[in-house]
Amino acid sequence: MNNDFKRQGEEKPLGQLVKGIMKAYGLEEKMKSYDLIAAWPELMGPAVAQRTKEIKIVNNTLYLSIDSSVMRDELFHGKQIIIARCNAHVGEELIRDIWFN
Fold it and tell me: How many structural domains compose the chain?
């Protein structure tokens, strides 16, 4: 048997390999951002989710477009709680600030 095609190094679980590839290509943070956006209704409840028209994350800032000025004001005063919930959900400091439109 030709030894040119033998595996080099140790075997690793598939999940660990996928995580390594995502990190190498800079996709890990993007996937956490998508996960956070998808979990927005669960994190904030149906009333806030229904009033949220757009969510995006750019440079560790969560940009929210809220169609109710009253709710936007309430959320503004609870910024630190929202940041803490979001970061707890993804397991790291992904969000550092929130901007409301």
Answer: 1
Confidence (pLDDT) at 9: 64
* Res. 87: pLDDT tops 90: yes
Domain presence at residue 77? yes
Q: Which residue has the higher pLDDT, 101 or 69?
A: 69
Domain span at residue 89 reads 27-100
Cα separation, 52 vs 64, whole angstroms: 7
Q: How far apart are CA 95 and CA 100, in angstroms?
A: 14
DSSP conformation class of 59: T
**C-alpha 28: how far from its chain's center?**
9
| Residue 13 within a domain | no
**Whose structure tokens read 């075997």?**
11
Residue 87 sits in a domain whose CATH number is 3.30.300
Digit-coded pLDDT (tens) for 6-38: 555 677 788 888 878 888 887 888 889 999 999
